[in-house]
């Protein structure tokens, strides 16, 4: 007798190719140039491989085939790299300007030894402006979310707190937004990676633990997951 499927069983996750196709479709909706950049990234290595095959193959079919295959593989790899970069940017575009967007980036988009928290360390309950903190080899980064005119005082106050506790650790102030002197949301991970490295890995852990031990939890919602955020129709072209 055949077993009936449980109604409460979890749905089957899509395969790797289907996931990539979904990412490509989402990216293309928000970034119409992504598909052309991917095509260019694929064709350039293929053409280079073909040129090298004709130049160095000397009529040897096996050598020519190897160069062509190498070009195709390199083109596929470069196209996937471009897709990943543009997909990340498109995902951040969906949550840009929403409260908690910086926290979502700190939770899922940091590399290069940086450690961030999706929960802000300071928040204005009326305006939803917030200040977040990340710790890495470049020291302590304080990141504001909201207009510069409203968040500058919050940033300066948090900088004084960090400097008082850790006077020898460099502090970088970053404003995320669309005002003059601010950076766009998708540029935040790259901006952190560019910071000059002054701390060792054990020092990063010690500084992070020191600051976390003094931080008071704030009763506010967590950040947004950029890969699960619903598209904003107003931003779709």
Give the key terms.
alpha+beta, 50% helix, 10% strand, disordered N terminus, 5-stranded mixed beta sheet, 237 residues
Describe this structure in words.
The protein has 2 domains: 16-95, no CATH class; 101-214, no CATH class. Strands 1, 2, 3, 4 and 5 form a 5-stranded mixed β-sheet that branches. It is built from 7 helices and 5 strands; from the N terminus they run H-H-H-H-E-E-E-E-H-E-H-H. It is an alpha+beta fold. It is elongated, with a radius of gyration of 23 Å. Helix 1 packs across helix 3 (61-95) and helix 2 packs antiparallel against helix 3. Helices cover 50% and strands 10% of the residues. The chain has helices spanning 16-30, 34-56, 61-95, 101-108, 148-165, 188-193, 201-214, and strands spanning 115-116, 122-123, 130-136, 139-145, 171-176.
Report the count of strand segments. 5
Overall shape: elongated
H and E order: HHHHEEEEHEHH
Mean pLDDT figure: 81
Alpha-carbon distance between the two ends: 53 Å
Strand content: 5-15%
Rg over C-alpha atoms, rounded to the nearest angstrom: 23 Å
Residue runs with pLDDT of under 50 for 5 or more positions:
1-7, 217-223, 230-237
Question: What share of residues is helical?
Answer: 40-55%
Number of domains: 2
Tell me the number of helical segments per DSSP (H or I, 4 or more residues long): 7
**Which class do the helix and strand fractions yield?**
alpha+beta
Main sheet characteristics: 5 strands, mixed
């Amino acid at each position: 007798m055949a077993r009936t499927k449980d109604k409460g069983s979890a749905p089957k996750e899509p395969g790797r190719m289907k996931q990539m196709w979904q990412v490509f479709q989402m990216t293309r909706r928000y970034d119409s140039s992504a598909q052309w950049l991917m095509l260019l990234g694929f064709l350039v290595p293929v053409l280079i491989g073909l040129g090298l095959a004709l130049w160095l193959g000397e009529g040897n079919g096996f050598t020519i085939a190897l160069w062509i295959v190498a070009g195709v593989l390199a083109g596929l790899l470069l196209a996937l790299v471009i897709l990943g970069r543009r997909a990340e940017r498109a995902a951040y575009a969906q949550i840009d300007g929403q409260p908690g967007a910086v926290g979502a980036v700190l939770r899922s988009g940091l590399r290069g030894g940086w450690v961030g928290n999706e929960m802000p360390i300071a928040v204005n309950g009326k305006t939803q402006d917030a200040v977040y903190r990340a710790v890495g080899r470049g020291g302590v980064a304080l990141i504001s979310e909201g207009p510069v005119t409203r968040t500058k005082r919050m940033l300066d106050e948090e900088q004084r707190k960090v400097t008082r506790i850790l006077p020898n650790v460099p502090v970088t102030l970053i404003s995320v937004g669309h005002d003059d002197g601010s950076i766009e949301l998708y540029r935040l991970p790259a901006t952190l990676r560019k910071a000059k490295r002054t701390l060792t890995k054990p020092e990063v852990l010690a500084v992070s633990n020191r600051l976390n031990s003094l931080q008071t939890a704030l009763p506010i919602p967590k950040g947004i997951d950029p890969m699960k955020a619903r598209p904003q129709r107003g931003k779709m072209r």
